[in-house]
Structures are given as structure tokens and as C-alpha cells.
Amino acid sequence: MSVRQLARAVLLGIVAVLALAFQAPDVSAREGRQLAVAGAQPATQAPDTRTAVRAAHPPPPREAAAPEQTGAQGEDQFPVLLGSAAGVLLLVAGGAALVGWRLRRQTGGVRPAEMRQRYDHHDAVLHAVREGVLILGSDGRLLLANEEARRLLELPADAERRPVADLGLEPQLSALLASGRAATDEVLLAGDRLLAVNVRPTAPSGRPAGTVVTLRDTRELRALAGRAGVAQERLKLIYDAGLRIGATLDVGRTAEELAEVAVPRFADVVTVELLEPVLRGDEPTVGANAELQRMAVKGVPEETAIYRVGEVIRYVSGTPMATGLASGRPVLVGDLSASDAWRQQDPEGTQRVLDSGIRSLITTPLQARGVVLGLANYWRSGASGTFEEEDLAFAEELTARAAVAVDNARRYTREHTTAVTLQRSLLPQTLPEQSALAVAHRYLPAHAGVGGDWFDVIPLPGARVALVVGDVVGHGLHAAATMGRLRTAVHNFSALDLPPDELLSHLDELVTHIDTDEARAAGLGAGTGADPGTGGRGVLDGAGTWPVGREGDPEGVPGRTGITGATCLYAIYDPVTGRVTLATAGHPAPAVIGPTGSVSFPEVPVSPPLGLGGSVPVETAELTLSEGSRLVLYTDGLVENRDRDIATGLELLRTALAAGADRTPEETCTAVLDAMLPAHPSDDIALMVARTQLLDPSRVAEWEVPSDPAAVAPVRAACLRMLESWGLAAIDFTTELILSELITNAIRYGAQPIRVRLLYDRALICEVSDGTSASPHLRRAATTDEGGRGLFLVAQFAHRWGTRYTPGGKVIWTEQSLDGERPEPGPDATEDVLDQWDDVPAL
Asked: How far apart are CA 721 and CA 716, in angstroms?
């Protein structure tokens, strides 16, 4: 029984009870009178006998009852009325409860107002969806059709409640709907449309089974799928742009990456131009005559473009490009052939572009952080369709991503240029003149950042030359500044003419002080993290090598905080003997190319890197090189990188060096870099090639001097004769004066062996050696002093002089110009000369 039927039954029951209640008194009176006329009858009398009696004796006319009798009858019937009313109320309450229970059961507890609201929502959705919906009964009649279904099937207004077969549908579609079978995306004809039909049976609880049908126009589906495909492809393009654009911090390469990403997925041709200051790392300003440089052309051969890569462009005011630069907004030109503003830039060039099939353009400013950096121009041919307004937003988003990468590259270029400028100012600008070595060098900073590699050529007394190559771990300004400090320190220690092992020991101590100062400045304290058993220094590992931090690791070594991390190789070459004395502090050993082209890597004692030496002594190695040999010094960036280990790099270096026996140092540097330089160096590379030269033995003269003042005159005379044979008579007087002073001091204050040596090189070099380590000091003697003026005279007449220590004593040396020029003597020079001759024994 339905709710409606139940409610109707309850109402009928109530009406019947009320009718009985109001008619009960009349019925009782009438029945009483009938019983009085007929007399008492047995209870078991048949109904037909009573009927017969009533028919034979009809009742007399009804008379009005007396008031007293009526009142008595009403009082007798009052309990009946109350009982009837109570029964009615109970019946009404029970019926209402039953109706409410059935309603709640059928609606799932939803209230009528909410039920109505849901109905309105479902009806709105049903008629608003872009999909046709049909509901069919089990008898094949159409129960419901939404607006989209009426449009797709062209249903008549009175279609509902009609059988499907009477709706005039295509036979196949009509048969499918009438069958009631399930279907999924079956494509059927409906007029001039192909519909994707889905059929699902449904059987609600307590109701006959039915069918729900959904319909969709396949043409609209294809159009929607096409738009979704385009949107998905553009999302993927944006994603790929994020991955590929800005992979390097190079401005030009970033522009090329933008062009490569956009062609052909968004445009047929892409050109990118950047403002000139961007290329230098400066912040650009857009003016009326702003100059742009084309950085990339993609999609056509560069020869067919109006402007080629590298050309400078000034866009005419009013052109789409100039408008985009000035406004900072993208500009769309849907039909280039109808754009006079675009043609005025270059009528001949623009005609070539139109002849090639290009028909549409979007020019978009490269803008980051409110600064316009350049332009990205997207071009389409007629075959690809023209750009639409909806393409502007995508072009702007794609260009904005590239603009951020270009701006990052610009800022990096500025910082990199600053660091490179600083580093190059700290590196030797020109090599000093010397005769011992023919030197060629190369320095290449890393693409990722400036490092701390350096090299040096330092002339030393006695025609010797020091070769230096070093590497500070890390990149950036800090590494460059540390390199400058170390290079200055090497020059200072070289001025003391220290042997390589002593020089590196002093340099190690300096780096240790630098580490300590930086640790204190950082609040870390000295020796933080170091091994207490080594006094804050490192120790050899099990492989016999000294661990240093990877390039870019500011800590230098594991377990140590604040290590500067530096390596250095220091070598001294003597052209008189052809001997090289060298020591290395954690640096790769040099390579030696013999005169015949043979390549070797000599064994050099392992020493700790700078700052980690501590109590570990630095050991030296000595090599004797034939004239014409080449000494190759380098940093680890040449032989080691991410793609190869150091063993492979050394083997490649050996192969590159052995390729040519008669190459010059310059040619050797070029060949090595061509063979070994990676595409994108991750570390600095310093390379130095020095070809040895020997001093002609005829330009070297040496004498043994006895410890006798009388020996001064013969040695001095022999020296003068040698100067005359060399054609240096112009400087014989000053040379005689210098030798007299130095030999006399050696005899008077020194010890055997005493030797005098003259070297005829770019300057005349006089050396007097003895067996003591006591060093003379220059001072100005008082008027009353009898001596002390000798070294003062030597300093006055020589261009340079100094002292160097040897394992067996010391050497006092002087250098004089070969053209006879000498420093202007002081006002007391003549008096000092006379006083000096008084101290020298007569000849």
C-alpha cells in the first residue's frame, strides 16, 4: 500500500466514525419503537419472519418526544460520544504516525523542504549538462528527456510517455533503446550526427525496472579532446621549458634554449634578441634608440633571416617590436602581410619573410623583476595557422620563464666578470724577461665560477728562474682573494732566495695562520675539528696520499672546519747546471718532455697540502734536464674532472705531450688544451710549459780564492781580463770596486771555500761565496768610523745585490747593467770610494 492509499483509508475511517457518532440516537429510538410494536421475539428468530411482521404492522406516525424523555436519552448516549471521539483521535494519531513512518522510510529520512530543494538541484543539473539524458520505463516508454537529449535527437514536445519506437529515431538507435541492453560508447547515427551512446539498466527498490541513456555528440567530443590535447601539450611545453631553459648560466645559451624549446611545438620560427647591457651583466634601460643583439634563430637557416646571430638591431618606433619593448606587453600581429607598421622596419627583409610563408607574429618582451631584458619573437607560417588571442597568454608565460633564467645568467655574468677581473689582476699580466727558460702559459677559468688557480715565473739571482703553480680549493671571490695572498707570499719568500722546501714550509705556516684567523672570525676557535695528535694538522692516509677537499668544498678535508685548502709546486731551474730543484705541497708532479719527445712523470716526494703540513717536513727532488727539454706544470683541473679520474687524465696528457717532439711551448699548450679541455670545465685550468736553455759555458767564469788578502789583486785582475774578453770594458771600474769589497769581506770575515763567479747573461752577475752563514748588513758608517762603507758602495754602484744561503754557506751577489748605466751615486759616494780604497791592500 502506498502512502497516498494509506492516507485515503485513514480519512475514510474518520469520516465513518463521525457519521456513526452523530446518527446513533435516532437509530436506537427507531429500533426501540420497532421492538415495542412487534413485541418480544426470540433471539433465535429468523430475519425473514421479523421482516414479515414489520411489513404486516407498519409503525405509527412518529411523535415528538417529550423534553424530559429527550434529555434522558442524551445523557444515556454521552459516554458513547466520548468513546467515539477518543477512538477517532487514536485512529488519527496512529494513521499520522504510520504515514510519517512510511514517508521517512521512502525518503531516507529527508524532510519535505530538503526533498524539494534536492529535486530543484537535480532538475537544474539534468537540464544544464552538455550530455543528453533519457530515462525509459520497463515498457519502453520515454519517461524523461533533458534539453540536450531533445536537441541531439530532435524530439517532439510531447515525446514523454510515448514508446521509443514512435519517436522517429534511426532504426539502430531505436532498437538499442527498446532492447534495454547495456551499451558503452556505441557510436550510432542520429540525423546528421554521430552519437556516443551509453545505456545502463536501473531497478529502484519497489519500482519497475527502467533504463538510463546518455548521449554525446562525437564531433563535440573530438573538439573538446583537441582543446584538452592542446592544453596538455602546452602544460608539457611549460614543464619542459622549466627543465631545459636556464640549464647553464650563460646568457647566449639561455636564449638558444628558449628558441629550441618553442620550435616547432609553439611556433615555426623563433628569434631572440637581448639588450646590449645584458650581455655585459649590466642592468639595461629601454630607450628610444635601444640596441639589441640577436642571440638565437631557430626554425629557418640563419642565412635567410633578416638579422643574423650577433648583429645589432635598432627597431623603428611603431613596429610591433618597439611597441612591445616600450609597453612591456606582448603584441600580436595576426596577418603580417597587412601590417604596414611591421614592414617599415625593413621592407626588403620583411618581404623575404612573407615569401618564405610566415604569416603571423607574437613579439613578447623578456621581462624579469620589472626589467625588460630583450625580445622573444614567435613566428608561424600559413600552414600552421595564425596566432590567436588565446596564444598571447601562453607566449607571455613561456617568455617569462625564460626571462628569469636570462636575468639569473645576467647577474651571474656580472659577478663572474667581477671575479675574473679580480683574479686576472692578481695573476701575472706579463712574464718577466729571462734567458733560462722559454715559457708559454694558459689560464682558463671554470664555467661554474672563478677558482684559485695561479702560476708564476720569478727570476732569481744567478740567472736562475723559479716556476710556480698552485691551486686554492673552492670558487668565487674568496678563492681568488686567497690566491692573491698566497701568490704575494711566494714572491716575498722568493726574494729571500729560499730553497723550495723552506719556501713551502713558510707558505704552509702562512696558510695555517689564515685558517686560524678565519676560524676565530667565525667563532669556531683554532684547531676545531682537527686531530689533537697532529697539532691541528692532517695526517697521511693509508694510500700514502694527502686527502684534500673536493673542488668547491670550503672545509678542505673531512673533520676539519675552516681549512683554506691549497696546493703548490715550486721549482727552481739553474741554466748553468741544467738542474731543477722542486718540491710540491699536495700538487700533481710535473711532466718532462725530453729533447727527443719522450714523456715522463718524475717521482716527486709526497708532501701534505698547504695548511696541513705541521711537523711533516717537505722533501725536495732534483732533476737534471738536457737543453731543449720541456717542463710541463699544470693544475688538477686539466687532468681530473667529473667524467674522468686522474689516472685517465694523466694518460691522456702523456699522449697529447708525446704527439710532437719539435713543438714550441706555445704549440704544446695549444695541443694539450685541444686534446684535453672538456666542453664545460668545472674547475680552473692553469698550464705552463717551459723549454730549458743552458748558459753558454764561455759566459761563465769561476775562481778559487785563498784566505789571503794578497790574493785579492790577482783575482781582480783576472776578472777584469774576462770582462775585456766579453766586451764589457765599460763597466770594469764598478766591477773592480764591487769585487774588491766582496772578496775582501769574504777573506776577512768568511771561511773557506771562497769562490768568485762571473755570469754574463742579460746582466753581469758577480757572486762571491764562502763557507759561513753570517750575513752582512747594509749600514751608513759614521764620520769617525774606520770601516763599514763597503756594502754601501756596492749598493750604490750595483743595480741589485743580495745574499742567498747554500747548504755549505752563503753567496753574496750583485747585478750590473751591461750598457754601463748604474744608479746615481749619493753625495758622499766619492768620499766613500776613497775611504774604501784605503782599506784595500796595495796591489
From this structure: 9
> Is the CB of residue 377 less than 8 Å from the CB of residue 270?
yes
**Where a domain ends, among 417, 440, 470?**
417
Tell me, what CATH number does 642's domain have? 3.60.40.10
Pair (391, 439) in one structural domain: no
Q: Could you tell me if residue 106 is inside a domain?
A: no
- Residue 470: strand pairing partners: 454, 568
Regarding whether 436 and 394 lie in a shared domain, the answer is no
Decide if 830 is inside a domain: yes
Domain count, the chain: 4
Label residues 461-485 b or e (16+ Cβ within 10 Å = b). bbbbbbbbbbbbbbbbeebbbbbbb
CATH number of the domain at 196, please.
Answer: 3.30.450.20
- DSSP tag of 641: B
Q: Is there a domain that residue 137 lies in?
A: yes
665 and 711 co-located in one domain: no
Say if CB 270 and CB 299 are below 8 A apart.
yes
Residue 805 CA to residue 499 CA, distance in Å, equals 9
d(Cα 300, Cα 184) in Å, to the nearest integer?
48
The model's pLDDT over 703-719, given as tens digits with 9 standing for 90+, comes to 999 988 898 999 999 99
678 with 703, same domain: the answer is no
For residues 714 and 204, give the distance between their C-alpha atoms in angstroms, rounded to a whole number. 136
Dmax over CA atoms of the chain, in Å, equals 204
CATH of the domain at 742: 3.30.565.10
Q: How far apart are CA 788 and CA 186, in angstroms?
A: 119
Q: Where are the beta strands (DSSP E) in 646-774?
A: 685-692, 700-705, 754-760, 763-770
Dist. CA 208–CA 137, nearest whole Å: 8
Condensed to tens digits (0 to 9), the pLDDT of residues 441-458 reads 998 887 666 778 899 999
Contact 17, 87 (CB under 8 A): yes
**Is 589 in the same domain as 678?**
yes
Q: Could you list the residue range(s) of the whole structural domain that residue 302 is in? A: 245-417
Phi-psi map region of 317: left, alpha, beta (phi>0 left; psi -120 to 50 alpha): beta
Give the C-alpha separation, 568 to 493, whole Å: 14
pLDDT averaged per 10 residues in sequence order, the chain, 843 residues: 58 61 50 45 44 48 50 62 73 74 67 70 72 84 84 83 84 82 81 81 68 80 61 81 85 91 90 91 80 90 81 88 90 87 83 86 91 92 84 90 92 82 81 92 78 90 94 81 90 92 92 80 50 39 42 38 74 95 94 92 89 81 94 91 82 88 90 85 88 94 92 92 92 90 89 93 93 78 61 84 89 87 52 44 35
Q: Is 534 within a domain?
A: no
Co-location of 318 and 260 in the same domain: yes
